[in-house]
């Protein structure tokens, strides 16, 4: 894929203007769902004292505006009972909206691990971008983006627990190493016993081994093969195993020392 162009920083290309808060519609691509009550109260108090220092970014939609960047500032301004807010108004595509709002939140570390993963997925899906492209755009390592996206394959229950901070992304990756049918059960155990990530990883290893043992099918050996093994064992005076592979196979002859190997060699080639 050709290098993806980095969008210009629109905030420096237009002068801010005051617009009515009740004319601003939310950004439908906002990845952030949770806003700390404490943070919002502090920001609202700061706005009451100093005003909105940094303008928000919106795009025009008829006689209204759609928010691009600045969700926290809008909410805090509403909470502070302001009527208007400074904003940069610029024509911006939906693809740019997705990218700008994600970059702002990731850089400020405002997102939960699940919100961040959902934001990366939006970029991958909308821009048809690779994980490496997304990583470059948001200033992260590709492995960071890849590990983040993997969390979205967990159940909604586990995603919610990670989103609420009850489980960490490390716990999530440990659960991903387990069979899907036991992940919720193991997640509840991790929560109940307050297991660390290292303990969860050990639990995953143990569960994987148990699962492999449970699904292992007993090996059924053909009676004719067993009879042939017994005859060869008797003839060579050492253990012989026959491993079938389709129409062919391998004959395995055991020896315990160099002298026995020489005896078997002379017996077979004479």
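-> sequence recovered:
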């Amino acid at each position: 894929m050709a290098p993806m162009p980095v969008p210009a920083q629109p905030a420096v290309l237009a002068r801010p203007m005051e617009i009515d808060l009740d004319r601003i519609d939310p950004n439908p691509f906002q990845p952030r769902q949770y806003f700390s009550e404490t943070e919002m109260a502090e920001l609202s108090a700061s706005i009451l004292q100093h005003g909105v220092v940094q303008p928000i970014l919106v795009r025009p939609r008829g006689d209204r505006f759609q928010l691009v960047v600045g969700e926290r500032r809008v909410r805090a301004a509403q909470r502070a009972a302001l009527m208007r807010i400074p904003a940069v108004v610029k024509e911006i595509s939906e693809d740019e909206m997705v990218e700008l709002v994600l970059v702002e939140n990731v850089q400020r570390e405002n997102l939960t691990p699940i919100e961040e993963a959902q934001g990366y997925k939006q970029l991958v899906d909308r821009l048809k971008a690779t994980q490496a492209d997304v990583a470059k755009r948001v200033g992260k390592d590709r492995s960071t983006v890849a590990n983040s996206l993997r969390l979205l394959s967990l159940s909604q229950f586990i995603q919610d627990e990670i989103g609420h901070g009850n489980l960490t992304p490390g716990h999530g990756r440990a659960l991903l190493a387990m069979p899907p049918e036991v992940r919720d059960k193991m997640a509840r155990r991790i929560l109940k016993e307050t297991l660390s990530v290292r303990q969860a990883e050990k639990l995953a290893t143990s569960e994987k081994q148990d699962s492999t043992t449970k699904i292992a099918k007993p090996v059924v050996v053909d009676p004719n093969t067993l009879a042939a093994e017994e005859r060869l064992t008797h003839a060579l005076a050492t253990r012989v195993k026959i491993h079938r592979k389709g129409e062919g196979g391998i004959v395995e002859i055991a020896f315990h020392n160099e002298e026995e190997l020489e005896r078997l060699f002379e017996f077979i080639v004479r």
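The chain has three domains: 10-138, 155-215, 223-269.
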